Amino acid sequence: MILNASQKKTLRTLGQGMPALLQVGKDGLSENTVKNLDIQLDAHELVKINLLKTAPLDAREAAIDLAAATGANVVHIIGRTVLLYRPTKENKLGVRL
């Protein structure tokens, strides 16, 4: 699913007040990080990720790699924070996209 600008705007609004559910540190994008992200996407659909200063990747690289590994869409990258979205059949967010 490819998100258009209006859909991304809606998801950015929802993600603005969310806490980060995942942090990426000095170990980078380990297998465990990807598994944890997959679980979080199944549970929440929209996940905010913080990259710590010790992370070996920049936010753009991490966002692309994580989205590819989990089948998610990159909604927004700002600073060292990434917002990813992967819809579920249940539409847990209740947002029509």
Automatic annotation (TrEMBL):
The keyword NAD does not apply. Residues 1-97 form the CRM domain. One of its GO terms (molecular function) is RNA binding. InterPro entries: RNA-binding_CRM, RNA-binding_domain, YhbY-like_sf. Keywords: RNA-binding. This is CRM domain-containing protein. It comes from Faecalibaculum rodentium.
